[in-house]
Structure formats: structure tokens, C-alpha cells
Amino acid sequence: MAQMDVDEYSEKLEQLRGRKDELEQKINEYEQQAQQLKQKIDKFNRKEEQKKEKIFSMQDELQEQQLDLKDIQTEINQKEKKLTKIKTKQQDLSNEIRAQLNCSAEDLIERGVEKLKQNEISEAKNRIQELKYKLELIGEIDPEVKDEYQQLKQEHDELKEQLQDLKEAMKDSKELIKELDQVMKEKRENSFKEIRDKFDKNFKTLFKGGEADLKRIYGEKKEKIDESQEAIVGVEIKASPPEKKVDNIRSLSGGEKTMTALALICAIINTNPSPFIILDEVEASLDEANTSRFIDILEELAEESQFILITHNRTTMHAADALYGVTMNSGISEVVSLKLEEAEKVSE
User: Fold this and answer.
1) Does residue 195 lie within any of the structural domains?
2) Number of domains the chain contains
């Protein structure tokens, strides 16, 4: 009879060892899956960083274009001053032609000369003498004036074309920034509305009634871009438990503040779920009933996210899919794991 008991125990021990190997194999599989999920998260974060870098790069490019535009405008002003001087020289040349040949430059080109009347000759001679005197004061004609004018005119036309290109590029950049601002505003409005609704729902679940809401706090902008909009400088949390009128959230008790904070955090998680979420003894100050209601919210959120909870609460442990305990054995920490669903099957 004792020999049969030893055989049965040996067989049972072999079964347990086989079960241990299966569990270790599953743990390895889960660790591989976790590594794959981490890689996906890292890839997603890199893409988000690339998008942010692209927006920052576009902003830097816009600033550089604005600086370039300012430099070009300064250069254009300088060229225009030079062009004005050249036009003055051109007028002087026209006066010299009129003084020497009694005709304008256009007349010389067309070869059409108008004859003077007899009573105009004396006046014309006086005018010629006067122009000759002015010509002596002016000095010789610079033969390089025309070439310099053509060169500066060409440079002016090129700069004017570049300026037009920069204006169009600035216009396109401003339109893109405006579109991005509009998209971000719409997403912010939708997310804020969703968080408000979820916050109120979670608050009523935890408190079995009451009301909760979020309100924006507006203030003055440091840099005014759009005068029609005010800057959001903060968010006010309004929470009123059932049968209790509260004007300020500071009037809530410690436990009520904890549950209000949990309701808001869960609303944010529900709006923008993360693959993994770690909570460290967030329900430590809650009693069993409130903890159960909080667990109901987490079970709903667990459809989109995986929760890792650090807790000493038995109610929370009972709702977990797997437990990991840390024990001290001969001065060495050991981790003991237990999957409740499989444990229940074994016990049955």
C-alpha cells in the first residue's frame, strides 16, 4: 500500500513537472508577443516624432524664408536707389542731346526734326548756350552708364521674380499651417467632448450618481495670432457627488478626490487608449464597494488596453487574469505567478 502511494505521488510529480514546462513555454510565448508589441509601439512613436519634426522643420523653413524675404527686400530697396540714380543720369544724357542737337533721344531714333520759327531761333540759341554751360558743369558723359543701367535692371528683374516666388511660397506655407491648425483644433474639440462625456459616465459609475464636468479656462494670449480666439490656459474640474452640493473640488474628501481623479484618468485612457497602462496602488484608499465599481470600469477599458496593477487589495486581485507575487526566500527575491483562469480549471 505504501509502495502504491509512492508511485502515485511520482506520477503526480511528473504531471506537475510537465505542467510546469507547458507554463514556462507559454510564458516565453507571451514574452515574445510582448516584445513584438513593444517594437510596434516604438515604430508608432518614431512615426509620431517624424511628424512633429516635419512640422518643426516647416516652421523653421518659414522663419528662414521670412528672413530671406527681409534681406531681399532690403537689397531691392538698395537697387531701387541705384536705379533712381541711373534714371537721373539718363535724364542728364537726354538734356545733353537736346543741348547739342536741339532734339530728344526719341527724335534722334525716329530721325524726325521739327524746324524752329524765326522768332524762336534766338531763344533756342540762348537755350543751347545755357545747356552747353550746364554740360560743362556736368562734365563728360560716362559711356558705361547705359551698360550699368541694363545690368542693374536685369538684376532688379531677377530679384523681383525671386520675391514673387518667395511670396507664393509664404502663401502656400501659411495655408498649410492654417489647415494644420484647423485639423488640430477639430481633433482637440472632439477629444475634449469625448473626455467630458466619459468623465461624467465614470463619475456616476463610481459614485452611483452625481454629476461631473470639465470646463475650459480662457485667458489672454502671449502672442496674438487670431484676435477672434482666446487662449485656453487651463481646465476646471467640477465634481458633485450625489446629494451633496460642492462649489469647489477642494471641498471633497480625500476618498472623493481619489475617485474623481480615477474617473478623469479612465476617461482620458478611454479616449486615447494605450497598449499598456501601469497603475500603482491607485485604489489603496478605496473600500471594497468602491473598488468593485472601479474594477468594472477597468474591465471595460481592458478591451482596448492591457493593465498592469500594483496592489494589495484583494478585490482587485480577484478581478485580475494573472497574479505575480514577489517573495523573499533566504534573502533572495522570487517571483511567483498564477493565472487565475487556469487555476480554476485545475481546481475543478
Assistant:
1) no
2) 1
Residue 15's Cβ-side half-sphere holds a number of Cα atoms within 13 Å equal to: 7
Question: Which are the contacts of 135, defined by CB distance < 8 A and separation ≥ 6?
Answer: 95, 96, 99, 100
Rounded CA gap, 98 and 89, in Å?
A: 14
In angstroms, the Cα distances linking 273 to 174, 242, 270, 312 are 33, 29, 5, 25
In order along its 348 residues, the chain shows pLDDT tens digits of 444 467 777 778 888 888 888 888 888 888 888 888 888 888 888 888 888 888 888 888 888 888 888 888 888 888 888 888 888 877 876 777 776 666 676 766 675 556 667 777 788 778 878 877 776 776 665 667 667 778 888 889 999 999 999 999 999 999 999 889 888 888 888 988 999 999 999 999 999 988 888 888 887 655 544 545 567 788 888 888 888 887 788 888 888 889 999 999 999 999 988 899 999 999 888 888 989 999 999 999 989 999 999 988 888 888 888 888 887 777 787 877 766 665 555 455
In a domain, 68, yes or no: no
The CA distance from 210 to 204, in Å, is 6
Give the C-alpha separation, 54 to 77, whole Å. Answer: 34
E strands, 71-210, in order: none
**CB-facing half-sphere around the CA of 55: CA atoms within 13 A:** 11
Residue 100, domain member (yes or no): no
Q: Give the number of other CB atoms < 10 A from CB of residue 156.
A: 16
What CATH number should be reported for the domain holding residue 344? 3.40.50.300
DSSP state, 115? P
Cβ atoms of 181 and 276 within 8 Å: the answer is: no
d(Cα 273, Cα 290) in Å, to the nearest integer?
23
Residue 226 placed within a domain: no
Residue 300 belongs to domain spanning: 273-348
Q: Residue written as cell 500594483?
A: 310
Q: pTM for this one?
A: 0.48
